[in-house]
Amino acid sequence: QVQLVESGGGLVQAGGSLRLSCAASGLTFSRYAMGWFRQAPEKEREFVAAIRWRSGSTYYSDSVKGRFTISRDNAKNTVYLQMNSLKPEDTAVYYCYTPALGGSWGQGTQVTVSS
Description:
51% strand
């Protein structure tokens, strides 16, 4: 059973930074892509960033490109999302995702950016 546990969310002022972590268990972490999604109030969940397992190639939504960085530490079974230059519109619950074993989501971590 795949388990994803996010942490690192919180309240930050606009222009600030946060680093989210997602600890994974129940899968061979190094063999799967990992991703981050977010969902703001009354909006649909949207893609934020992803990282491939083999090449380490990264992908970002246009709204976060140049401000967010996704990375992974296969030794720690953890994926990170470094978020810089945060804006109020980044406020959302952030979810970790893996397509492993049919797809699994974490429980989410709240990020609130005040103006």
